């Protein structure tokens, strides 16, 4: 319990005005955290990407991460790249996080939505993002900015008027603790 929570707890016990909790995460942190959490489902040993699509009402309408297509076993299909045999390269098979998030949508479409992604989208994802009507891309890392696929993404986004902006975290981490003591956090009866 932090100081404000302790004061509020005291206020609750003595029937005094209680102020709202501090330290809560804002919308952008929340959506990017969902994308980062989704990435933890990825089986790709070298790069885990997550994506979270949000509508204008701040409702999450799709989440995805990079993985093998349904029915293509994570244990049978390759996770290597730079292989001598091109057919053993993961890039031929993996569905990208952005595409999975769009395909997983729980709304009729994703027009006008924003997509939060760990990694700036490649050119193939950029095409799908544009065609789906997504209007904003918020990304954490642009580590591939020098590669032609990513230069092409920006060229297409600029032409199609899809806004892209980097998410600059105001905190280095958000902790998820499954061992919450609900007795301590619940208001007293
Ligand atoms: O926009 C993108 C770009 C890449 N991915 C996925 C595809 C792969 O599983 C990894 C990239 O692997 P590397 O080892 O860095 O080549 O990321 C994606 O989901 N979205």
Automatic annotation (TrEMBL):
Alphabetically ordered keywords of this record: Hydrolase, Metal-binding, Nucleotide biosynthesis, Zinc
Enzyme class comes to hydrolase
Outline the extent of the CMP/dCMP-type deaminase domain. 26-164
- The residue ranges crossing the membrane are none
Top-level taxon of origin: Eukaryota
- Molecular function (Gene Ontology), one example: dCMP deaminase activity
Task: Tell me the Pfam families matching this sequence.
Answer: dCMP_cyt_deam_1
Identify the InterPro entries for this entry.
Answer: APOBEC/CMP_deaminase_Zn-bd (IPR016192), CMP_dCMP_dom (IPR002125), Cytidine_deaminase-like (IPR016193), dCMP_deaminase-rel (IPR015517), Deoxycytidylate_deaminase_dom (IPR035105)
Keyword Hydrolase tagged: yes
Known role: Supplies the nucleotide substrate for thymidylate synthetase.
**Which family is this sequence assigned to?**
Belongs to the cytidine and deoxycytidylate deaminase family.
The name on file for this protein is Probable deoxycytidylate deaminase
